[in-house]
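Problem 12. The chain below contains 445 residues. Write out its predicted structure in token notation.
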Amino acid sequence: MYNVTGLIGFHGYDIYLYAKDHLCPQPELPQEEASSMKLWFNEHNAEQSALNDSFGKYSGSNIIVIQAEAFMNFVVGRSINGQEVTPNLNALIKENTYFSNYYHQTSQGRTSDADFASNGSLYPLVSGSVFVRYPDHQFDTLPAILKSKGYSTNAFHAYEGSFWNRQIMYKAMGYDHFYSKKDYKIDEPLGWSLGDKSFLRQSLNMMDTAESIQQPFYSFLTTLSSHHPYSLPADKQGLDTGEFKGTIFGDYLQAVHYTDEALGQLVSDMKQRGLWDNTILAFYGDHDNSIQETSYYERFLDKSLSKLDMHQIMHEVPLLIHLPGTNASVVDSNPAGQLDLTPSLLHLLGISQDPYYLMGNNLFSGKERLVTLRTGAFADAKRSYLPSENGQFDKGTCYSLDSREVIDVAGCSTGFETSKQRLQISDDIMKYDGIKMLRKEETAP
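Solution.
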């Protein structure tokens, strides 16, 4: 839609949906469905609970979460012309926890969807953005939960505060302050706004020196430099992209390499400021790069790619989590997704998710995981399902992740039904302001 209508048309569609959602008579969630929803969350929270060694091990730690623009997983650990595309992230993986099959779960809301899924542990909408359509609805978000536990909570993004309705939504999500473009010195103008190196440096300085930000803090940062159309000036290009030079794919590699350099500088700065050893750092990509041509990836990876390969390439982003006081490499290859971030961070801090309505998995529970995408595609430890265009289950394709071959679609039936139920519950929460309704029932005499 963005490619066809442009930026104004894209957000104009969101405004239309907001008016439709709020100016028309508001629907009410039937009591039977509300009871079923409550039961689902009770069972889910019990399943994700894990009083293991990692529960509460990092209680009181600061948390910095970096959502990196269009930072995809296929570049991690890869080189071009003898040069690593992401050398700093590669080095961090050798000493931290890395989820190698981490799926972005975004839809039309793109960056705002990744933000909402990661901080709110609910699925994005089929159409439009939650940030624009339902900013007045009630959600259990990571900043609000941590604020209630005494954390200073702040969001950082060097762009216009009104974009994606962040100015309104971030206040509703429980942030103490939103540092937007007006709060930064644009000393490294790059792409859409401020270059990531300066953005991360200035943001960390605010966390470390601003009187309004006290430890422990939760800081959520959204980068910009690896945003489409990936046009870095020559003096910022640190890769020899060879055969891809002058192509959008080559430009993308340059942009991701630059953001990786910014990450390396941030980590060095954190260590110098004494923050590395008392801060959980999470770094993940928000969504794909919108470059769909299979030939680029086949040439870069030097192999032919199946439909399943391309699906994973376009939907997997890296997730790295630094845990204070540890320097062991842990690579978790089981499927995970953006909805899982908030439950996992709460677990590490020793905060039970029982009172909250969160749909993600606890990545540190040691239990099997199912990851569902907004399209109805899903993956578990053994299978991956790609839906058909018409949404009919038997027209979709079921793959074995061991053989990577197509298997009988019946093998994906349980995952399909579970995923369908999850998406419906999340949609009902949006449509009916379901969490607010459930909370009223909890306090009713």
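Discussion. The two ends are 48 Å apart (CA to CA). Students who got a different answer should revisit the alignment rule from Section 12.3.
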